[in-house]
Amino acid sequence: MPLTPAEKQRRYRERRRNNQEKEEETKRKDRERYHANKRLVRDLTTREHRAIKKKWRCANARRRDKAKALSMIMHTPESSPPRSNSPPRLSTSRESTPNSTSAAVRGRKQIKRNRSKLFRDNMKLKEQLETVNKRHEKYKKRYNREKQKRFQNEDGNRCNQQKYQILSNAIKKRYKNVKTRKEKVAIQKIFEEKTVKGSRQKTQIIKECLAVDQGYVRKQQPLFKVKILSTKIKEFFERDDISRATAGKKEAVSLKKDKMQKRYLLDNMKNLYVSFKQENPALRCSYKTFTRYRPFFVVPPTVAARETCLCRIHTNIQYLAFALCKNKVIPTSDLNKIIVDQVCNPDSLACMTGICSVCLSKTTNFDTSKDEIIVRYSQWISKTEVIEKAGKKIKVTKNVKEETESTGKALMEKFEITLEEFKRHIYYIKTQYRNYRKCIDELTTNEIALHIDFSENYSCKCFEEVQSHHFGGSRNQVSLHTGVIYSRCSDHKIEVSSFCTVSGNLSHNPAAIWAHLHPIFASIQEKFPEVNVLHVFSDGPATQYRQKQNFYLICTKLFSNYQFTKVTWNFFEAGHGKGAADGIGGFLKWAADQLVAHGSDIPDATKFYLALKDVSKVRLHLITNEDIEQSSTQISDNIVPLLGTMKVHQVFSEEPGVLKYRNLSCFCQRGFCTCMNPKNYFPLKTAVEQSTPSNCDKNMLSDISNLYQKRTKGFYRFVYSSDSDDVDDAPLISLKEKPTYSVAQPCTSKENENALIEMENIHANKINDGICVLVKVSSSKQDYVYLGKALSEVEEDGEVKIMFFKAIDNTATKFKLVETDLSYEPFDNLLAIVPEPKKVCKGKRVYYQFDTPLDIFEK
What we know:
alpha+beta; nine-stranded mixed beta sheet; seven-stranded antiparallel beta sheet; elongated
């Protein structure tokens, strides 16, 4: 019969034990294998070390418990009967036995009785001992069982305690790291459950899990103080420098049947709380209270409600700060902190405009060791492109977000230059809003304030539309001019009323503006006959409110047609004109869409007016084309431009025909003070100037066809037309060669290059109406340089209105002004500022002559 594997192994081990060398070799291999698999404490990780120590502790505890239990069983002392104080005494002496027989008998009986009694006592004691032993063993066994259970429970409790500690630490860490109030409340609600609420350890649990002492009871403030605090917080959140108003028809929110237009916060709650505490140091207010009293319609911004009307200055410098901070060139991207570190006082005009001598020594804390790194950043720029439309090439200007690369040093320099302009921009924003609040808060009974703005045009709709109307160009639009009127009542309270003027004419020029304002001024005079001082606040686009025609109407029409004796017109800083008026347009458009959704048709401005005039408290007025045409007839054709128009933020007048202006608003004397040295502006020429007219003034823009061959299209159409592509690569012609000048040849100057041109330090502040500049014009293959005349300052979108000159000979010193050749050029395309030319008149012909040739490159 074959051997089993076990028998084979047993015989193999016997043979190995008989061979001493093999036995030693086997033991050596076993030791090596053991030590190879065995890991020392120093080789273990922290987690493995904790696990093995825990295993050792449990094993040692079980070993000690087992040894202790065995010792108690083996060394239990034997039980013995209790000792009696007077044990029975047996006498065996015969000496006491009476000699008589009866005595002997009695003695033996007594002995027998005693022996019987002793036997019975012994039997009883044996029974008692056995009972006690059984009871001892029972309780001993029970004790061992309970002890074993206790050990098991202690292990379970220790494990549960560890789990509880881990869970409480996780909750505490999460509660500490959450940022929003909503998440904190969600965690707190866990401890409001019945299981926690019903226990007597709720306070201890909350203290351990949230690190919050529930035993501390805050002292309650009096009710009147709470009301004052809540009112202050509400007014703080509704300020235009804290939250921005919305104009969208869908941006409304309701709470308990109270419907309000949304306002989006301009900063996070932490920073706003810091600002609130700085403005109100005497108020006792915690961050939790600050968030509790935030109005329900003031909400954080979302992606869907992103701001699409951002200020270009703010956005571009913020991109620079983000790029520098990301590459650790500057410690923070918070522009407010950067400005505070660079100025003595953020509320000082001298500090914020670079005039303060102390602030000049303060610079941004750059890491200069990163001068050579390459940094990528974004910028919003105006870009000129040539597109083909209807077979013709035309120039268009687009605002695009462009990714750019630069060295760290170049970006630092650009950031420093941009920061100087940004500080002025910030100061102007705060100053204008501060004066806006001051004007309204301190209104008197003879004053009235208007905040006006054009809302986005409303696209008319019908309840049912055919496809060609819905997707075609047949849809009409309605122009909405909205505003808010602030007045002081007899009970010294500020009364607020809103209005909107509706028109099918989409023009937003000064003539249209004053046609929209006419019914408003008429209603003000009717409702407030005692009012003779007017304050107007608006944004400052150069095509609407901030231009010479509007200035002319302010100092003439308001005095002659509406009997106002004093007037101020204030402009918010560029890109920051959002306010209360924007919410009115959003509400009206939302209300119009609701009517359309319920079956109404709103195909034009008249239907819009009739449908909404009784829907709300907003007063509506209908403006016709005839009203706008009539308003345009009241504008003079000889209005003098105001130099530095885009810098002006307040104009005011106390007498007809004279307007005073300054760079910032001031209401220390209700807007009519002499702070910041206001200058006088006369929209119309004085009598002396008008008495000496010249043919040159009357025919400044006439064509000089006798001096030069007449061109039937403007420079841009000539440069970008398809029939001139063959000369796109024409070389530059130096005046040293004295060539024969022709239409398609460029004329340049290299002899006196830069002699009369201000090539360095060209700045937007130097671009004013009437300044002559060199402008770069690009085609698909070549860059050209033309002479132009600025007709405006640098506008909000970074463009300048240019009227171009045309060279009339080959000397590059004589030019004519082409009235029809107009274009809006990006500021970046302006190459230099040239001196003012000499105006030469020959009959009705006018040309402009420079003392030295200009470096131009015409096509």
